[in-house]
Structures are given as structure tokens and as C-alpha cells.
Amino acid sequence: MPFKLVLEKRVKDVPPWYPFATSIGSVVIAFIISGLILKLIGGQPLEVARYFFTAAFGSWAAFSDTLVKATPLILVGLACTVAFKMKLWNIGAEGQFYMGAFFASLVVLLPILPPDSPKIVVIGAMMVMGMIGGAIWGFIPGYLKARFSINEIISTLMLNYVAILWNNFWIFNTWSDAGFQMTPTFPKSAWLTRVTDYARPYKAFMQNTDSGLTRFLESIGLERISGMTLHLGVVFGLIAVVIVWWLLERSRWGYEVALIGDNPHAARYAGLNIARNIILVMMVSGALAGLAGMSEVTGVVHRLQERISPGYGFTGIIIAWLAKLNPFAVVPVAILFGGLILAGREIQPSGLAMMLQGFILFMIISSDVLLRYKIRFSK
Amino acid sequence: MTNAVEMQNVTVRFPGVLANDQVNLTLKQGEIHALLGENGAGKSTLMNVLAGLYKQSSGTLKVHGQPVSFNSPKDAIAQGIGMIHQHFMLVPTQTVTENILLGLDDPGFALNLPRYDQKVLDLQAQFGLHVDPAAKIWQLSVGEQQRVEILKVLYRGADILIMDEPTAVLAPQEIDELMNTMRSMVALGKSIIFISHKLHEVTAVADKVTVLRKGVVTAEGISAKGLTPAKLAQLMVGREVVFSVKKKAQEPGDVVLSVNDIHAENNKGVPALRGLSLDVRSGEILGIAGVTGNGQSELAEVITGLRSCTGRVIINDEEIANRPPIRAIESGVGHIPEDRSKVGTAPNLSITRNTIMKSYRHEPIGNGWTINFVKARQEARQLKDKYAILAPSVKTPARNLSGGNLQKVILAREISTRPKLLVAMQPTRGLDVGAIEAVQTLLLEQREAGAAILLISEELEELLSLSDRIAVISHGKIMGVMPVEEADVNKIGLMMVGSETVNN
Fold it and tell me: Which of B337, B373, B400 has the CB atom closest to A269's CB atom?
């Protein structure tokens, strides 16, 4: 070889912006590699990229759809962030998502509340139930780890299948809608408010008023909002971002989580109850994923059915990692992945979006070496 | 006699640091050459150059008179140079012989272990390094593991051995054995470079001494005969070091810690404490002397709530035994743990976050659910100044601190909570002369402030100069307690090996 790569351990710590730069760099490189592969098999990478962009961000309607996809991703991304902060490898956000959806649905399916309950009560109850469902699904592996040191990677992964099959059982067996693999549609009181719900008053407002605001909305292409399925779940997601950030960065509990994550021996020495925190973190993580499940059944599908998640729980792992466990960074990353999922559905071969996701994860994990080492070429 | 190694004008530059500056070192055939210096003086760097791990920026290396250039440790081993690292590089689940053979081309695919066990035994007999070749590494004591490291190097045919602080992890009698081994190796024609902090060991075993200070040689190959520890210390730190810190006479107060008939097991489930009892009063330092591994670690852990036991541990009238560690912390126990990086600090958290480990639950740092990080940073800055912690800022992660500065962070944290009882386990181990003095002074300040201090140390001199009373531990029991005025090294030594009981 004419030259060789030398890894030099960093003497000084990297500046705070550096981890985010490597994340962005990883995404860019993943796009380039995917483009090269596309070229290799005879595709037109630039054309595809342009299509990708248009399908995900090209119009307000498209962007609204992207945000709909990003909503559960924000919540599961946060779920993974909380667990990963303590180096608890919760691979079970997918299962916790399904259990959240299931428990939330119980409110109308059992029913827990009478069918004519006011919307705010139904939605509130569904939120609580969804978070409880996810928290139970986080508690089980958490307890097993705290009490019997059972590896949480295996138990959370396995519980995903249990949760999905558990859901299927009830959908097929008990609440099947005329033999289809889905329950009947929920009453409107169990639907999260959507943007399109305001289409009529919005239209009236736009037609009847002529102010700076309406002109501005028109000029940016928002003359009509009917059909926009963006729902209240995105607000849950954004509120959760702030709460999780505060919990992790400002609260006593967040400090304990960081301490246990960095050095459990030191945490025990500092008087922390590690077993209790393992269970607690798994439950909080599960509750966030469960809330994502609740938001999806009440905001998008409006019923419990099969395959309500195209692997959101697993994508959450990549999102948390790409966001470097920073709750605020989870939002743009989730939007990027929401766009990928949305556009990926309309592109052949359909595996393209998955390949891109895979490359992004691969690049992001590889790029971690840059945080610890400097790379130099030498002869 | 020929020169085994000649290092001439060796300079090693790291980004922003000049680790070695024009260093000369000559190792004669059949000589034990001590390399001394404070933490960060560049000793390990220099030896890593000789062992092929680093490459010098300039300067030449000669082995047996021939100029050499190493690109990897393999090249160094081919020239007969082997390094015994401070941290052992052994596979715990494999046997001694398997560890010795690891990475070699012979044996090939088929492993005929008994044949190689015999080879290892032959090698042991030659140098007097005894350890069961079929034993698994995890079953061995630290001293035995070190013997395996030495055997590994000898098996590869090294005749120049570099030992990086080999005594740092050993108990006193193991150190004697190691020194005998070193002497017998030299008698058989090997040459040894020996890095140490402990001055008396250097004068006991070395023929020649080279001293480094901040990357520069301050004494090159001077004879070890007739060197006084004071003279060596001066060469190392560039000033006269006061070895005995001044202790004020004072009357101890009430009993703060009372330990009564405790039994506890070690990590392997073997009884480590067998009916141990002791008292520590406020304003006094009780020194625990003993050979490492006689229950000292377990004693410290029982008192701080980190290990379960039977018996009674009472701190200020409160029962602590078998309660969670938080009970001990809340009743005013400070703890300087044995392992400062594995137990005492969180490596990736900042200095600030490491200094609030014990105080974050209460005002002014903790406030209900929140932590006041502005206040925490202020306090961390004050501690950094007061304890002279060398770091760019309080945001620096703990992993970037040297051993001495890490210890200061721990001391600052434990002392700033104004403990009623301070359990200090090997507080000066591995520190350089300047840092040792600082740590000892801090302990005495706490004594004057009225804290009860349990000082567990393997340095007898340290115990004798700091303690008010000395208790000797052996096989998990206190063999005797004596006022420091009545203590002498011989008496303590006999009790340490458990042969005499002196009742107070």
C-alpha cells in the first residue's frame, strides 16, 4: 500500500457541534452510497432523489403526510433515547407500541367508557391506557433484568413478537369486523383532532377575509387544508420532547440515569438504587412507545388492526442513535425518516428506503470512531 | 560488560505534548536499572518506544550494540525485548499455559497442552516463578497473575525485560518474592528495566537509576548504592520533599464508628471477615495495617453499606449493616474507594457531575426534582481551585484526568460533604510524591476538623506518620490495636502474618 490509515487517540475532547456534524455527514454519505448502488443497477439516482424529495417534502400535503409518519417516530425515538441513556438496550419499542395501541383501544372496545362519553375524556383515558400498556411491556424485561440479570436485548426483542401476536389474537378472534383482520372503526369521540377537521371553517375564513394573514397563507400555498391528515399526536410528540429533555438533562432522576449508564459501580457507591432505576427507565421508555401506539390508532387508523406499525419501534433505535441521544435532535431525524418511509412506499424496488435506512445506521455507528480518534494518512 | 540497550537522544512528541526530550538511557547486560519519575514524567512513553508500541520522533535505539528500528511490538520481541505491563493482559477463563502460548505459531492447530505444561514448568524451575500451569487465570492471586505475565515474556525468549510498576499491585511479601525473582533472572543473564514510584524498592533492588522529570533526564544511570530516598525524591520533583507531614496532638472525642463481630464473604464466596471488631473516635485516625487481601476491601465495603454481612456496624448510634449504601451516606460516611476509576468516578461525566455524586440529593445542589447545575458548576469550580485539580475546565470528562487529579476529585467530593466518618482505602496508592503529600495533609485537616478516619493502607510509613492508633488485620480479624507511639515495624510485621496477638 502506498499509504496507511493511522488512528490517533484524541487528546482533547471534540467540540459540542462535532457529534451532530458526524451525524449529518453519515446521512449524506449513506445517500451517496445508495445513489452509487442505484446507478450500478441501471437506475437514475438523481431522478430518484428528486422524486424522493418531492414525495416527502414537495408540497404542504406531502409534508403533512411526512409529519404523520414522523409522529410515532418522534415518540419511539424518545423511548429509545431514555433507555439508551442508561445503556439499557431496549429493542422492544415495537412491542411496547403494539401494547400501547391495544390498551388504548380497550377504552372503546371493552368498552371501559360508555360510547357517548365526551371526546376529551375518551382521548385522555386512551392516552393513560396507552402509556400503561407500553409501561407494562417495559416493566416485564426491566423486572427480569433487575431481579434475575436477564439480558434485556433478548427479552425485549422476544416480547415484540408476543405483543404482535397478542394483538392479532384479539383482532381475529374477538373484535373482528365482519371477519376482516381489524376491529370496527372507533367512534369519532376516539379520533384525535386532525388538520382536515378544520377544512370547512378554514375555507370560509380564506374566502371571506382579505387580510395580510390570508394573503400570506395563500402565497405559501396553504389556500386549502382539506385532506391534511396531520393529527394532534404530533403535539404529544413535541411536548414529550420537552419533558424528556428536562427529565434527562435537568432533573435529579436524569442525573441518576446518566450516572448509572456511565458507571453502575460508581452509581451504587453513590447510594443509587440501580434495580429500581432499571425498572423505572424501562417503564418510562415503554410508556413513550405505548403513547406512539395510542397516537397511531387514534390519529391515523382509527381502529385496532394488523400491521399498524411498519417497524416504527426498530426505526426508533436508529433515530435515537442518529440524534446522539439528544431529545431535540430526535425531531428533525424523525421527520427525515418519516419522509423516507412515505416516499419509500411509492418507489420501486420498495426495498430502496430500507437500504437507505440500513446504510444510515451503518454509517452512524461507524462514525462514532471519529469522536474518539483522529484519522490521519501516513506514508 | 556489554550494553543490552542504548537509547540515545530519544524524543517523543505527541500532539501538543513533548513526552520525552533528548532522553539517554543505557542498560548494561545483567543489570537491574530503575526508571523513576512522577506521574506523567514520560517513563511509560519511553518504555513503550523500547517495546515497539510507539515510535520515537527522533533519536536512536541500539540493542546489543546493533541499531534497531521497531514498527511493532513483534519487532521488539524478535530482538529479545519483552514488556510486563502494569495492567495484565491475560484471558481470565484460560489456563496459565494457554495464556503463555497465546499468539504463538507453535503449537499449531492441534493443542497438546500437557506437553507445553511441562515446558512451562521447566521454565518456572529455572527462574523460581511457581504457578500451576493448569490453573485458570481467574483462580490466581494478583501476584501469581504477574508471574504468568513474566513467564509469558520469558517463554518468548526475552532477555531484556521492562517491568512497568510491577510492585504497585502486590502485597509486601509478594514484593519480596518478586525482588528475589528479579535477582535470579539477572543472575541468569537477563537485564531488567524497572519502573517504580516506591523509592525504598529502588534502593533495595536496583543497580543503576535513571530519573525523568517532565520528559527530561535529571539523573542518568547513577549508582543506586548510597542513594537516599530524599535525594531521589529531589531528583524526581526538583525540590526537597517533606516526608513526614506534621500531625498535631489532639484528644479524640466520642466513638463515631463501632464495628462489632462482623463476618462477611468476598466476591468468590470465601469468608473474608471473621469476627472483626473495632472502634473509631471523632478526631482520630485509626490506621489498618495488613497484607493486601486480608479483608481490608471487604471491611471498607461493609462499613459503607456496599457489602452484606452479619454482625453490627453502628455509626453515630445508627445501625448501618445490611442497609442500602444510601443509609451510610446519609449518616455522614465519606468513602475514598480503592478503585478510583472503576468505583470512585464516572469516566464520561464532567468533573462537575462527578463532584455532585454525593450532594445532588440536598440543597443547594438538589432542589426537589431538579438539580441546580449553575450552583453545581460554581461549587465544582471552587473545589477545582481549592484542591488544585489540574484540568482545562470543570466540563472536562473524568476520563481525561490523571490518577492524581482523579483522586483529588474524589477527595474534594468526599471531604466537601463534611463527613463524620471518612473511610479512606489506599488513598495515596499510585500517586506521585507531590500528590501523596497533598492527600495526607487533607486527611490530617479532616482529623483536626473532628472527623473519625479509618485509614486502610499498605504503606506502613504512611500509617505510622498519620495514624493515632494502628490496628493490624490478618485473615479477616484484628490481631491487635496499639497507639502509634507503641507501634514499631517489627511488631506490626509479626501481627500482619498472624503469628502474635497483642491485646490493647
Answer: B337
Residue A295 lies in a domain: yes
Q: Chain A: nearest CA to B175, how far in angstroms?
A: 29
Q: Would you say how long chain A is, in residues?
A: 379
Q: Are strands B191-196 and B32-36 parallel, antiparallel or unpaired?
A: parallel
Burial category of B65 from C-beta neighbours within 10 Å (exposed 0-12, middle 13-18, buried 19 and up) = exposed
Whether the CB-CB separation of B387 and B408 falls below 8 Å is answered with yes
Give burial (CB, 10 Å; 0-12/13-18/19+) of A287.
buried
Residues of A in contact with B400 (CB under 8 A): 13
- Res B15 pLDDT > 70: no
CB A228 within 8 A of CB A196: yes
Q: Do B371 and A250 touch (CB under 8 A)?
A: yes
A275–chain B Cβ distance below 8 A for any pair: no
Residue of B21, B24, B20, B22 lying closest to B33 (CA atoms) = B24
Domain hosting A234: range is 73-194+229-331
Compute the mean pLDDT over every residue in chain B, rounded to the nearest whole number.
85
User: For position A252, what pLDDT does the model report?
Assistant: 94
Q: Is A250 on the interface with B (CB under 8 A)?
A: yes
Domains of chain B with CATH codes: 3-237 (3.40.50.300), 255-496 (3.40.50.300)
A44 in any annotated domain: no
Q: Which tens digit of pLDDT belongs to each residue from A109-162?
A: 998 988 889 999 999 999 999 999 999 999 999 999 999 999 999 999 999 999
CB contacts of B345 in chain A (<8 Å) are: 263, 266
pLDDT one-digit tens code per residue, A19-30: 888 888 988 999
pLDDT tens-digit readout, B152-204? 999 988 889 999 888 876 766 788 888 988 998 899 889 999 987 677 788 88
Task: Confirm whether A354 is domain-assigned.
Answer: no
Overall size of chain B counted in residues: 504
CB A282 within 8 A of CB A152: yes
CB B420 within 8 A of CB B282: yes
